[in-house]
Specification:
By secondary structure, this protein is mainly alpha-helical. The protein has 2 domains: about 1-120, no CATH class; about 120-160, no CATH class. It has helices at about 15-25, 30-50, 60-65, 70-80, 85-120, 125-140, 145-155, 155-160. α3 (about 60-65) packs across α5 (about 85-120) and α4 packs antiparallel against α5.
């Protein structure tokens, strides 16, 4: 969990809410926890089905994590200055920044959606995609191989952009 100080959205060993509540004097259980448990079980089933493919959300989450790295470290230090344990400080800082990180992730995702919409109408992209489809359908290539070869074939177009 030492990586948590550098990548706040990296793998988390424990549920952050539980760790923060352990050190608080008054910790009431909220009804949200039951709903989160149900949501997490359905997301676990989805994760099992997609284990062989990389997580498409990972780059977006990393981007948000990098943006919030400095505020996260400041929050951790504030909790440590109050005499809290290292584990508590990390979890509490994570929870404090969670609403901000969710909004940033939504904004980043929205920007990507808009970019995807615009790129679909771009002439260069359409040429690359047409070649890509031909490689898949006619030459029975897999996705990665066809994508790499299609981009390489049309690299002179991307060179013009630069």
């Amino acid at each position: 969990m030492d990586d948590c100080s550098t990548d706040i959205f990296g793998p988390v060993e424990d549920n952050n809410d539980e760790n923060v509540e352990e050190e608080e004097e008054v910790g009431e259980e909220e009804p949200e926890e039951e709903q989160e448990e149900e949501d997490s079980s359905s997301s676990e089933e989805e994760e099992e089905a997609d284990d062989n493919e990389p997580d498409p959300w990972s780059p977006l989450c990393q981007n948000v994590g990098e943006d919030l790295k400095e505020p996260y470290l400041k929050e951790v230090q504030q909790f440590l200055d109050k005499g809290k344990s290292q584990n508590y400080a990390k979890n509490a800082a994570f929870n404090a920044l969670l609403p901000v990180s969710r909004r940033r992730l939504q904004r980043t995702y929205l920007e990507h959606l808009k970019w995807t919409h615009r790129i679909k109408h771009d002439a260069i992209h359409r040429k690359v995609m047409k070649t890509f489809q031909c490689f898949i359908e006619e030459d029975d290539m897999d996705f990665d191989e066809a994508a790499k070869l299609a981009v390489a074939k049309w690299k002179f177009l991307s060179n013009r952009l630069m």
